[in-house]
Amino acid sequence: MDEDYDAIVLGTGLKECILSGMLSVSGKKVLHMDRNKYYGGESASITPLEDLFSKFNMPAFQQADEYGRSRDWNVDLIPKFLMANGQLVKLLIHTGVTRYLEFKSVEGSYVYKSGGKIYKVPADEKEALQSSLMGIFEKRRFRNFLVFVQDYNVDDPKTWKDVDSNVTTGAQLYEKFGLDKDTADFTGHALALYRDDEYLSQPCGDLIKRIRLYSDSLARYGKSPYLYPLYGLGELPQGFARLSAIYGGTYMLDKAIDELVMEDGRVVGVRSGSEVARCKQVYCDPSYVPDRVKKVGSSFGPSTNLGNCRVISKHPEKSGNCRGNSKHLEKLGNCHASHQENWSSQRT
């Protein structure tokens, strides 16, 4: 460790690993360190299962038969899915990191409607015709809406149909096509993936882009617009870590970070115990420099309902007593190595 580096990266979250990978590819000498013994930081996939129990100070984990082998579990701390045609997937392909990862399509997406029923989000025209999510006349209106969204081109006024995406609000767009409230909720939260209804009063340009991303992602691999790494989201930072290592990057996990070494007001190195690694630049996640972090805003408004969780269940899904008007669920099947067979993993 007692060497000079062009850059030192602290923390192995996705952003940090992307940075170290890009720096190494560009010929920089990089040292990448993490206080944890696993990759991923706050977005890691925890395995074995006893480590998850320990992290959240839960009662001592016992190797119960119902859990199966603990190393067959990879539990995401921040459960998310990748849009098949989204920017992150494009970045993975562009950098070649897909060589180190394996993905599977998500088994299905579902929405819960007030009244106690869960409906599968249609993945093709046949499913759409058979779905009881909408009535036959509403399906026709919704189809006309989707055709408009797919054909809309902000640079071609002929495709606007009296809709200016910089002026017309989301609510006005739904009203123009005669969509009812249930269909609007479904579109905004299950397709466009908005967390709240504030978008309804905002220009509809972003709404159109989100729905097109969903549609383009669905068309790319079929059946689902979502991809998920076979062994959990923690595979993503590890993929970029492998890229960095191939180009000479050095990695140290479970390494204490005791001090950022400063000279004349500039960082010149990192100390771990009695060892000091010197460098020209340091990149780190905020947890390594809490005294230098400044909160400049929030990603969530005061009215946002953060109803987002990962549910791991052994029994088939049933129509439970969910509260609220709508929920959006996605399901991982046994083809994903994130949990034991006969268990299902759902993100809500």
From TrEMBL:
Keywords: Cytoplasm, GTPase activation
Annotated Pfam families: GDI (PF00996)
Signal peptide: none
GO biological-process terms attached to the record: protein transport; small GTPase-mediated signal transduction; vesicle-mediated transport
Keyword Cytoplasm: yes
Major localisation: cytoplasm
GO cellular component: cytoplasm
Cell compartment(s), UniProt: Cytoplasm
Molecular function terms, GO-annotated: GTPase activator activity; Rab GDP-dissociation inhibitor activity
InterPro entries: FAD/NAD-bd_sf, GDP_dissociation_inhibitor, RabGDI
Domain of life per record: Eukaryota
SUPFAM superfamilies, A to Z: FAD/NAD(P)-binding domain
Its job: Regulates the GDP/GTP exchange reaction of most RAB proteins by inhibiting the dissociation of GDP from them, and the subsequent binding of GTP.
Family designation: Belongs to the Rab GDI family.
Identification of the protein by name: Rab GDP dissociation inhibitor
Organism name: Ixodes ricinus
Lineage: Eukaryota, Metazoa, Ecdysozoa, Arthropoda, Chelicerata
